[in-house]
């Protein structure tokens, strides 16, 4: 079970949280100006990186606040949690996932 | 003589406290401190079970949690029967009833042993190869037979009467294993003031020190050092010492799961204490000091009762004061068995030792043992054993460096202690996703790269020498507590080192030998070889094909031998073959511990409204709606559901009905920007809604599909009273919070769930106004002053109320919101006032019928997450002038504006008495070829008392273009014909609602 550092409450177990998917996807200010393709991209297309991923989390069974987190999808390590509307202080642009950390999965295959 | 194999002295058992329990009905006597295994051995009982596949007689192999064979069913009283308990870890106590497993009719004479004679048939992959055809036999014949024959123990049939507890804990340093390494680690960490938890699976901390009667630590006997160290730890407030506690799971972020056996070892009533306690520990640092497991030697018939692991023989002698035999042969490929032989000899037993290593490969242990008067045969292999239900002799032969055997020699014995080397217990390290590396010098996989904040030490890290373990443990404990403290220990040198051998060389035909690798699954060396010959190369595949390393022991004793055999067959190095992944749990965990207190209402809570008790007194039948328990209908006399609902439906339309709508979700939306917020979230316009007016609100997700609906009242300029569906309350609040916090943080709005603060009494029917008129103060109830879709505040029965004039029935109606703590009193007052008017309580079933008669949708019944407002005929709700709201852009998506979408229609059956099945499929032409094109499905279907016929709603492709057409709907008896109609079946002009 992950241990997640809520920016408002501190470290709490994963069961108190809900993950809200990829972070930093702003709702367009004028959706009607978007083409069908662009709107569909906004609605449905998400990154699925092997490595650092910026995610939305909600401390739903705690303070109820939404915040963002940088998590390494390989090691499950949380690099940083930070409030909605701010940028992370560490790393390159989030959600690119171009720099996966080394796999810690024991390779068992011959 | 009782306990004929109890040694006259020695051991940690309390000889002043005799106990007795039963095994297969026979009384077994032992002492306080015995395990079931040691007590059985003290009584000369070696045959304790039948093997899984071949039903071969099996005994006790080990003294610890790695035991694969001695699995017993343990009966602690009614409802307290557990199968597959390892005799070596169950503490003996008065009143236990233990039973052997997997035999019929008896342990001594087992018909299933015929499998042993048929063993050439039961090769690896037997099931896959044999039960392939005919295919129709798979489900009906083969599977039931195989399932009947499979398994070892029998599952208990009664509900578990015990209580199980759950505990969360945080610590700085969690130490796993309280052997010398773990004790040193805990001591070092505790000295820094760190919060330490030290857990050990045994009933007594100490690990190998509990059976080490010859070593000294820092000039004291090991037992004295142990006692002093435990006293030291015990005196420290910052140390929690947990015996009988197995660390079984290592999860993300140092979340470690432990199961503590609290009362199983106590006889008699244990009061309110739980049977087991599940600990979930969040540790800053973990020290893994779980020790190591001894490997068996792989030779023909190495599974006979009386053949134990060498170290286990030593444990039974030293710790329990029990002789597993009087004439013991140790067979080994390494040094540690010499210590066992020494101790056996010192206990007065007849001892011989056979070493696979040559004279020159042995260390000083050889000379010492010979000096003690023990015959040692070096350069010998073991080619077989004699005996059936108990070993009677070991067949050995000298073996040359070319693997050729010399003349056989039979060593008569009643016990064999075998040692094939040692395997560090890296299970938890592997669970933590750490990376293992093969160490050729120790022939073992050792912890290499950590993935989490942990470190391994001692035998679990490949260190076997006592002084080295102590120093390594101390260093690990200090480092885990961020201390530079290090120290060395002086201790008696430990005889270590072994020469790996996968299968003992033999002079017999290896294809006819039954040399067991995995005792629990009856996997032999030739099974593994066969699997490799058949093309299985990955160790993960070999494991699954042969089942080696599976079941309750998870291959603790067998994995390295199996791995070595596969590597040998493939002519690869051990790391080239790799190792299987270790997964939780380390040892079996009871379901009770995992479930804990989460049973019954604590697992599945029930929410009730303040009206619930009144409804119960009225004899209501209830149904579950989400977590709520709602009154379903109120039968009178012998009425069934249909009779009661027919009466209730009529009563509402002809008089007045009262309904508990308290479960509706309620959210108070407050703030200067409340109207703007509502405007952005709902399809409807809100800015110009006057205070005191209500609107039916429809909410979409960003993809344009309906999320929820409900009546919203504007209480004041900056306050909205929002209602949601019963099941959608939490979802809607979450949806609102998400947008408010993350998209529009600039809006000054506050959201509060008020579902439980307001109870809602719905009064519906032409006489509704007359019933409440005498009770309401401060509100003009006249139709002109208080029209449909208005909300007023005032009092009812002196209780403050938000009185809504709304209707979910199509009748004149009120929804009376009152504070929940006074709702029951208000309800009863209204009910009393309504008596002269024939007021009728109705439940959710009638509510459903009445709303369906009016064609009102229910989110989740007419909608399924792919339905737009236009699909259900509610496009008119959408504010045309609004530039944007959540979901608006998606309503212009190509697939949403395309023709062919399923639209809400009414259906009437040709036979007015036929009530369609909800979910039934709809087609246009029953003669079309299969698979037919399905146009849609029935979403709601009822008998309508007010229409005098059945009615149904359905989602049908282009349904609104099909008005008046005939379609066909599936029924259990075949297709039936229906006509497509408008979904409003009763009072289509909607006049009654404005009465």
From TrEMBL, chain A:
Query: Compositional bias (Polar residues) at which positions?
Result: 87-110
Gene3D superfamilies the record matches: Folate-binding superfamily
Q: Name one GO molecular function term.
A: sarcosine oxidase activity
Recorded hits in InterPro entries, A to Z, give: SoxD, SoxD_sf
Ranges where the record places region Disordered: 81-110
Please give the name of this protein.
Sarcosine oxidase subunit delta
A Pfam family that this protein carries is: SoxD
UniProtKB/TrEMBL annotation, chain B:
Which residue numbers delimit the Aminomethyltransferase C-terminal domain? 902-987
List each copy of the SoxA A3 domain by range: 512-594
Family listed:
Belongs to the GcvT family.
Name of protein: Sarcosine oxidase subunit alpha
What GO biological process terms does the UniProt entry carry, in alphabetical order?
A: tetrahydrofolate metabolic process
MF terms from GO for this chain are: sarcosine oxidase activity
The chain's coiled-coil residues are: none
Q: Which UniProt keywords apply?
A: Oxidoreductase
* Domain FAD/NAD(P)-binding, residue spans: 172-432
Q: Which domain of life is it from?
A: Bacteria
| UniProt-listed Gene3D superfamilies | 2Fe-2S iron-sulphur cluster binding domain, sarcosine oxidase, alpha subunit, N-terminal domain, BFD-like [2Fe-2S]-binding domain, FAD/NAD(P)-binding domain, Probable tRNA modification gtpase trme, domain 1
| Regions that span the bilayer | none
The record's listing under Pfam families reads:
Fer2_4, GCV_T, GCV_T_C, Pyr_redox_2, SO_alpha_A3
Chain ranges of the GCVT N-terminal domain: 611-882
